[in-house]
């Protein structure tokens, strides 16, 4: 079977910025964020998104004109969001420092990763709060792991989009984005062509030490929703460090490749395939022998507006590549 690198054509237009509507000027908004109340006194006007997934959620909500900065781009921005993205100042190639963030004079800060609020990055959310700057963190990546959601779900992603829309006073835009994503999610689930007990290895990065998808992350959820099985769903971490001998023993039917653009060894999908074919252990895997690969962007394997696209791509890949017998 030919290798499948499914393009995100089904996504075209469905994550475009929602239509403009007047911002709500009502009183403070309080949301529960990572187990604690977060109060935003008024719809932000100078928000900073600290990495790409947060940036694209905001852009999908049509909030480019209320962004004072962005940072940490890991993939080319979605084409339908590029016009908005180009209006937003880039504060840093990776995370901005405390000084760079404060120089942007933000009135709201948002990230989908706790690492953005580390002491050597933008600084702790409490520090920002003490300065009068509310800082939101994705419920999937709380500083206190006990406060984080155990599993990444699409309902959780949609709730996060709703939180941001509510904070910015544009709940109608949030409803539009979520409705479009739910429709695509339902269609991809209906159209999945999954053979019984098809196993998927989600290969994120690394050649000497491969990092693969374990239990509770988005790949685990996508596998279940499409009737397949994550080959490492028994691993306790969401992204455990694996080894090739164990992967060979499990011999997955299909390998889902993260196509990362950061340029490291084994980052791109093409370099992953080259390695898998040249390594004596992995060259014998059924998925490698039969060219059963599905390629998705690296950022779509984390909770974001791209997550539905990843599910669509894997759904299409299962129809084309899933073995009919084991």
Structure description:
- With 326 residues, the protein is of the alpha/beta class.
- It folds into 2 domains: 22-169, Rossmann fold; 192-321, Rossmann fold (3-Layer(aba) Sandwich), CATH 3.40.50.1980.
- It is 32% helix and 15% strand.
- It is built from 11 helices and 12 strands.
- A 5-stranded parallel β-sheet has the order 5-4-3-6-7. Strands 8, 9, 10, 11 and 12 form a 5-stranded mixed β-sheet that branches.
- The protein is globular, with a radius of gyration of 20 Å.
- Belongs to the bacterial solute-binding protein 8 family.
- Pfam families: Peripla_BP_2 (PF01497).
- This is Iron complex transport system substrate-binding protein.
- Residues 46-322 form the Fe/B12 periplasmic-binding domain.
Question: Layout of SSEs?
Answer:
Layout: E1 29-33, E2 36-40, E3 47-49, H1 52-60, E4 67-71, H2 82-85, E5 90-92, H3 98-103, E6 108-111, H4 125-130, E7 135-137, H5 154-167, H6 171-191, E8 199-205, E9 211-212, H7 218-225, E10 229-230, H8 244-250, E11 254-259, H9 269-278, H10 286-289, E12 293-297, H11 307-321
Parallel strand pairs: 3-4, 3-6, 4-5, 6-7, 8-10, 8-11, 11-12
Antiparallel strand pairs: 1-2, 8-9
Helix pairs in contact: 5-6, 6-11
